């Protein structure tokens, strides 16, 4: 196996769904030829048409000329099976979020591809080492986590498995650069940097709905802080049903009080923007989130059924709990070495999660507040609300030394 970095000239993408489509365009735009596989031929056909349509749209907008559109389209071809893609330098897998399925695909590809080829997964959260273990080339396996829509969002999380080689990382970083991405290397943990931090942030938002807030209020507070979207508008864009289905598939987590509102929305077919209704209402063809009193009534009903005594929750509390949840998890990610620096975490949040640019990212924001102050505020939350607010060890250490995350 080669230990020197090599340039990726030919790639294959497995999966022609939402993410596969964007990833294919990222590669084609960067001059990489792409062979595309999906086990559903109809899906692949639709996806090829969607890509052609996106380029035609870019031409109409004057962003590229027809010749450039033709060149990019010519770089993309449908492949009938894995044998057809045996000579590529890189495969990016973007099939359903299911570990066994991904392992099966990696095992099969490992047996066919040249030894130096890289195998990447676009998984949002799954264990890269468990995927790599299905192959005999774990040094050549890594995560390439694109954000939706992949051809537009700047962020690329490059996930380093326990055995990923420096050469493989280097090749991925070089590719990220060619695609014009902001690449951040993350260690392997559930959700990597971005989605791992999102989890406690969203959990607080969901808890506040049960305790007395309404979706619009939570979103307004965070958007007032400068976020591009509050968490519930974000869920409407992503699709509330994705996590619902994942919980169903995994057979766990469906009973937690915090997800009961999501569950009810999904049972009603309110999956978000794509179904015209989610936490908000959308007029046909519109992406404008409109307040829906039916959702407020549902929030009230579910929290009362669960026995909550509702109380007024103001924007200060919403910001405090959501932002400190982000910062505390970010600190854990830093102390565990999952992120190389606080700046990397900030890059993830600025480029992938709509964190306000003028605040510099969650870790820079915390530094600006002062870590001694953040530490006190986390302790106060711990006293009021329990263990989940226990400050990360790193925050206490840095606060005691009068230092910030950026001084580490
Ligand atoms: P999707 O459901 O839109 O598309 C999945 C595609 O995979 C479908 O076209 C399906 O036909 C195809 N497929 C399924 N099994 C296959 C197989 N055995 N061989 C070949 N093709 C197969 O899914 P998506 O939203 O594009 O997500 C794909 C991956 O990207 C998941 O791991 C997901 O977690 C991750 N991801 C999704 C998002 C997002 O916002 N949607 C963001 C980042 C990462």
UniProtKB/TrEMBL annotation:
One Pfam family, short name: 3HCDH_N
Record domain 3-hydroxyacyl-CoA dehydrogenase NAD binding: where: 11-188
InterPro entries the UniProt entry points to: 3-OHacyl-CoA_DH_CS, 3-OHacyl-CoA_DH_NAD-bd, 3HC_DH_C, 6-PGluconate_DH-like_C_sf, NAD(P)-bd_dom_sf
Keyword field: Isomerase, Lyase, Multifunctional enzyme, NAD, Oxidoreductase
SUPFAM superfamilies per UniProt: 6-phosphogluconate dehydrogenase C-terminal domain-like (SSF48179), NAD(P)-binding Rossmann-fold domains (SSF51735)
Domain called 3-hydroxyacyl-CoA dehydrogenase C-terminal: residue spans: 191-282, 318-402
Entry superkingdom: Bacteria
GO molecular function, one term: NAD+ binding
GO biological process, one term: fatty acid metabolic process
Protein name: 3-hydroxyacyl-CoA dehydrogenase
């Amino acid at each position: 196996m080669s230990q020197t970095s090599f340039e990726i000239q030919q790639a294959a993408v497995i999966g022609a769904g939402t993410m596969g489509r964007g990833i294919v365009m990222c590669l084609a735009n960067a001059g990489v030829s792409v062979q595309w596989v999906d086990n559903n031929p109809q899906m692949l056909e639709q996806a090829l048409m969607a890509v052609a349509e996106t380029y035609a749209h870019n031409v109409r907008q004057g962003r590229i000329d027809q010749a450039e559109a033709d060149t990019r389209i010519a770089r993309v071809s449908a492949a009938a099976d894995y044998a057809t893609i045996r000579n590529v330098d890189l495969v990016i897998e973007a099939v359903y979020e299911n570990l066994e399925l991904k392992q099966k695909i990696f095992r099969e590809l490992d047996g066919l591809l040249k030894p130096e080829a890289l195998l990447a997964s676009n998984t949002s959260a799954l264990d890269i080492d468990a995927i790599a273990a299905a192959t005999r080339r774990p040094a050549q396996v890594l995560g390439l986590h694109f954000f939706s829509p992949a051809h537009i969002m700047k962020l690329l999380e490059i996930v380093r498995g326990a055995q990923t080689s420096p050469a493989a990382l280097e090749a991925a970083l070089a590719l990220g650069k060619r695609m014009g991405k902001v690449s951040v290397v993350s260690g392997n943990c559930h959700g990597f940097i971005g989605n791992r931090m999102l989890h406690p942030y969203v959990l607080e938002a969901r808890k506040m709905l049960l305790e007395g807030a309404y979706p619009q209020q939570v979103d307004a507070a965070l958007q007032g802080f400068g976020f591009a979207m509050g968490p519930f508008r974000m869920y409407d864009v992503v699709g509330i049903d994705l996590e619902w289905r994942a919980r169903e598939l995994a057979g766990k987590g469906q009973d937690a009080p915090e997800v009961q509102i999501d569950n009810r929305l999904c049972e009603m077919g309110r999956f978000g923007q794509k179904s015209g209704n989610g936490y908000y209402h959308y007029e046909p063809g519109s992406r404008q989130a409109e307040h829906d009193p039916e959702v407020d009534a549902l929030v009230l009903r579910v929290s009362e059924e669960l026995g909550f005594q509702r109380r007024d929750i103001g924007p200060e509390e919403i910001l405090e709990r959501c932002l400190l949840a982000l910062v505390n998890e970010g600190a854990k990610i830093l102390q565990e070495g999952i992120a190389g620096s606080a700046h990397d975490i900030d890059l993830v949040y600025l480029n992938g999660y709509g964190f306000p640019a003028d605040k510099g990212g969650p870790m820079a924001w915390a530094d600006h507040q002062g870590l001694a102050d953040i530490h006190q505020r986390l302790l106060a939350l711990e006293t009021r609300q329990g263990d989940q607010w226990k400050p990360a060890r790193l925050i206490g250490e840095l606060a005691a030394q009068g230092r910030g995350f950026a001084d580490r």
